[in-house]
Amino acid sequence: MSDPFKTMSFLDHLEELRWRIIKSLIAIVVGAIVTILFVDPIIDILIQPTREVSREMILQVLTVQGMFMLKWGIAFAGGLVFAIPVLTYQIWKFVSPGLYQDEQRFALPLIVLTFVCFLLGIVFAYEVIIPFSLNFFTSMGYGDIQTNVSINYYFSFIIWLMIGTGFIFEFPIVSFILARIGLLTPKGMRKYRRHAIVFIMILSAIITPPDPVSMVIMTIPLVLLYEFSIGVVWVAVRQRERR
Asked: Which pLDDT does position 101 carry in this prediction?
């Protein structure tokens, strides 16, 4: 391992961590500013699923400051998404002094794959989970009763769902890192597969709407991600053994 990591004092580590956090926050703020410049087209994209439900769904602003809070909430969420590569880079730079030289070459691929996997999670939530959930809930309507929904509640629902799904799609990346440092093995993941599936179901129940259908829709791709991660871990272990 590299010498700088060994020679840095505890206070030096805290100082470095502080600057990494500051740079990450700046990246989020910059991303939020970029997002707020395009917030109206983004809102139009995010409300598109409500136009495609089988039963009419009407979004309403129920408070005076509703749209103001909504736009800044979207800006913060967008800032977080745009800052993912920077956040990943800052985390990597903080831990990289403690890694072997051949492990540090994974920096750029991991940063790119982290962002790609996060975006795949967002797209999956937007294209699959959200439309299905909206159709499921609006189908529970009755007679001439209109389905009127607070726009703030709607956006809180879909943004939480998309960002949560994005983070869950990072599982293969996390598995690769843990395997490289020796904390995960393919044998261990296969051994605890049943436990993992139970945990996945619990996690799906937390991040999806409170209905079994949405939970199942989320559980299936997560189980597939787990199986894919076993292969990722196998590759990482083979590379570590050849080091």
From this structure: 60
